[in-house]
Structure formats: structure tokens, C-alpha cells
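Appendix B: complex inputs.
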Amino acid sequence: MIKVIVGRLLQLIPVLWILLTLTFFLTKMVPGGPFSAERQATPEVIARLNEYYGLDKPVWQQYLSYLGKVVRFDFGPSYTYQSDSVTEIIARSFPISLQIGTLAFAIAIVIGVTAGAIAAVNKNKVWDYLPMSVAMLGICLPTFVLGPILALIFCLELKLAPVSGWYGLEYVPLHPAVMPAVTLGLFYAANVARLTRGGMLDILNQDFIRTARAKGVPEHQIILKHALRGGLLPVVSFLGPAFAGLISGSFVVEKIFNVPGLGQEFIKSVFNRDYPLILGTVIFFGTLIVIFNLVSDIAQALLDPKSRKSL
Amino acid sequence: MSIETATVVPDAPVIQEAKLASGTSLWQDAWYRLQRNRLALGSLVFFCMMAVVCVLGPLFTGYTYEQTELSLKASAPLEPIIERTESVKNGAPRRSYLGLSSIEDEFLEKSPEERQAVVARIKRGEVVREDRFSYHLTRLKHRFGTDALGRDLLTRVLVGGQISLAVGFAATLVSVVIGVLWGAVAGFLGGKVDTVMMRLVDILYAMPFTVIVILLMVTFGRNFILLFVAIGAVEWLTMARIVRGQIISLKHQEFVEAAVSLGLSERTIILRHLIPNVLGPVIIYTTLTVPDVMLLEAVLSFLGLGVPPPMSSWGALLDDGARTMETSLWLLVFPALFFSSTLFSLNFLGDGLRDALDPKSSKD
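Resulting structure:
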């Protein structure tokens, strides 16, 4: 087991290297540079800036020097935030995304598993369709529509949470993370509900459930002890990558609620051509996704004796 | 071929009888089960109707999606429209249209009482002349109202539906073709080829899709075709994984061994014997990818990377609507109704197909 985990962690290196290389050359293909276009600067100033940041060198030299820095965990300075390094920006914005993401994760699981379990037990009846419709709201309306609607109801009308921003908002009852987390959580709840329902239906058709029924085990015990436990397997394999996506911040939600999280920094960096920040966040995202994929594989193996061998 | 002929029992009529008694194919079975799921069946009907309405509807609305009427601005659904004719010296009179709610602004120099009297006359259908202008009520109607540029929202919603559905299906097609072939080849060949191919999928999985799509859109401009190629290129990963898993479980079965022993090429085995057997999961996943892609198109519109104006798409309309939600709610409500009902129907259809096509699920 430990051998397998170490092996998977070692795979991180080639994965991140290819990810970094792809992103590096993609960003170089984009026309315009961080110091061109609308920014008011004379050609001399731009030339000096390019020289200072090493952008005047051939691309392969830039690539090699960047690679050398990354190996030493130095992601360089940001172009837009002149006094901050990329590491500092990530360290500053990631905790915010982490809070929203963790809360959204909890919301998604609670809504999704409940709706999926109720639906599975009442297959093809009203109590199948109704919970699934509620759970699917999040994937049938884009977050940039759902977010403002929720904000209108809960922030402007009921005044429960701040409409936007993050700091100095102690006078409203709810933490500023709640509304973005609900918006984001609803999106993932749909997938969790669907996987729970499918997984539970699979289990409910199996022979050991029939045996349990024949033995006279009460129905609620069959559902909670046997069906739900087995039915959550597909959910577990989805949750790993989903959690990585959640905590790295949905930029749309962060933009709507004007939250200074990592997702928003990432989108800003793309539009600003802030190469070091783009690359830094991409590597950070990539690491998170690989690690959480591994975590969900391990969790799945612990829950399911059948796939334990394949790990 | 020789194996099949060898197994034929001499007593042919008996076999035919047995077929009549038991023979329901996987697809007949699935169709039967889908019919039992009323929500999925209703979704299928609804979706087909939606597609027909979006394709044919714009022919009957009387407006085009790009026809602007600036003076009309954002008029509410079914708001009476007033025609204003301005007589011009040595030329044809200039004609423009106004919403009834903004007609009072035309007579701001009058006292409030006079203003109301004029408006009342117009409402009664009289032709009112003021200086060079004449006003009269028309029978024109914008069923869904108009947007800020006075474009007919109904037409734009329907045309937007065409675009969104086209993007959804085209991108899904791209992702299905790549995903199925990739997964089938990796799963069938196995070994090192499999490892390399699936490792590449893992790497692409770890890549935030927005980087690829946004960088592509920024690099090559807002190109309509590129939009769905880019989305399709991102969405094929899951399909490849599903197909690979299925193929691996299939390839050790007897019919594949038989095909190998008959000397069929790998290409034929993959295309003729393996892929048809994984169609079930592929169809399910395809149905579920279309709404995903449509959602992604909407998000790209939100970021300003969707279809370029004046073209309309549901994503672009929703983005417009969400921005003007507080002043003109209908600009959000109608696109949102069309968009979410279509996505609901596709999602329920996909889930229904999953229940129907999965041979493991019970036959009730």
C-alpha cells in the first residue's frame, strides 16, 4: 500500500512537468505581452521591463530558467502585483478559496446524498423526480445566474449575508463565505445526487439485499447500512477531483461575489498576461488535482474490498 | 463465420419458435424500460419539441435576431408599441418605434395634465401630431419584449437556442469521437501503449480546462468553430476513461477470442466488435455531455469569450439578463426558462437512459 502511494506521488513529477511545459508554451503563443497594449509606457520603458523580467531572451532560455527556478520552489515575482511573489499571492488567496470550497463541499454532500438516496428508494415515482429536480437546479442554471438570484433573495431582501466582498462585514449574520459556498455547492450537489442514486440502485438489485430482506432485516437498516454504504462508492471517486476543483475556487462564483480568492486571481492573471502567476496557479491546481485523485482512490480501496487489489 | 454456421441446429423451426417466445434484444428491452420512466420519456418529447421550435420558430416571429430598434430600448413583453413618424424636408419620412411606457418622455415640455391627455389619445388609437412628429398605436407585438437595443427577445432566444444546441451537439460529437477511439485503442492494446495513453489523459485531467479554452480563445479570437472544437477537446477525457474500462472488461470474453482466432485485424475487432458493445455507456454519457457543454458555453459567454455579437446564444442572453436583472427582469427570465428546461430534459433523459440501458438494473 505505502509502496503504491509513494509510486503515485512520484508520478506527480512527470505530470507536473508536462503540465508546466504545455502551459508555458501556450502562454507564449498568445499575442501581446504583459507590458504591451493599453498600458501607457514608452518603448524604452517596455524594453527595460522586458529586460528586467527576462522576456527579451529567446523562449527556450526563458523556459529553462523558469524550470530551474520552479525546481527550487521559486515561482518568481508577479507582473501585476509588483511587490508580491507568486507564492505570496497564492498563500494569500488560497485560504479564502479553501474556506468557501470546504463549506461548498459539505453542502454538496448533504444535499446530494440526501436527494440521491430518497430518489433511489422511490425509483420512478414522484419522490424520485422531485428530489432529483431540486438537486439538478445547480447544473441546469449557470452559476452566474443562480448566484445573483440567491444574492438578490438572501442578501438584498433578507439581508442575511453580504452581497459582495470579504473583509469587515461582521454586522451581517452570515459569514461572507456562505453565499458563494451555497452557489458552488448546488452545482456539485447535482452530480453527487446522481451518483448516489445510480450507485444505490445498483446495490438494491443485488442478491445480498434480497438475502437480507429474506432474513427479515428491517427496510431502513437495509437502506442505511447496506445500500447507502455500497452506493456511495461511485460518489467517493467523484469527490476527490471535485474537492480539488472546489477548493481551487470557482472563478465565476468568486467574481460574482467579489471574493479575493485564488480562482479570481487566476482569471485576472490570464487576462493580464501575468505569466508567472498563470504558471504558478496552474501548477498549484495540478498538484491539488493529482493529490486528491490519489486520496479518493485510497478511500475507495478502503471502502470496497474488490478494488483493493488494483490500487 | 465458420463457427456460427457450425452451431446451427438442424431443426430450424424449433429455433424460430424459441425466438418468438424469448427474444427481446437489449435495445427493445431498454426502450420498454425507458417507457416506464415517465419523466425520461417526457423529457425526450420535450427536448425534440424544443429543438423543432428553435429551428423553425425564427421563421414565424416576424423579426430577425440582429434587427435593432434603438428608440424602442428594452420594452417589456407585450408592451404596446407606438410608431413615430418624423416628416423630413425633401425626403421620405423617418419612422421609429417607442414602447408605451416611455411615450411620456416625448412630451416633457408639456404640463403633466396635457401630457396625460396626449398619452390617453394615443392609447385610444388616435393619430396624434406634434410639430414634425406624428404618433399612432401599432399592432406590433414583442411577445418576450425587447433587449436594450430594441431587438426582439423571442427571436433572439430561439436563434440563441439553435446556436447553443449546435455548440452542444457539435462539441459533444468531437469529444465522443476522440474519447471512444482513444479509450478503445488504449483498452484493447493494453500494456505500455495503454499506460502512456491514459497517463496523458491524467495529465490533461490535471490541467484546469479554463486555461486551455481561455488561452485558445485569446490566441485565435472569438471564433465560433474553435469554440466547440476547444470545448470538445476538453470534454473527451471522461469518455475515454469510461470506454477503456468497458473494453478491458470485454476483451477477454469469448467472442473477442473467436474474432482473434479467425484472424481479424485489430482495427476490425475494435471497430466492429468492441465499440458496438460499449454503445450503451457512450449514449448515456453523450446525453449527459451535451448539457455540460451548453453550461460551459454559458460560462464562456460570462467571461466575454462566447459567440461574438450580434449573434445570440443562450449563454450570451443569460449573461445580458443577469446584468440587467433588476431593471428588466424578462431579459433573464425567458432565456433562463428555455435554457434550464432544456438542460433539465437532457439530464433526465440521460439518467433515464442510464437506468434503461444498464442490463444489471432490474426489469421492473
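Chain A touches chain B through 52 residues (CB under 8 Å).
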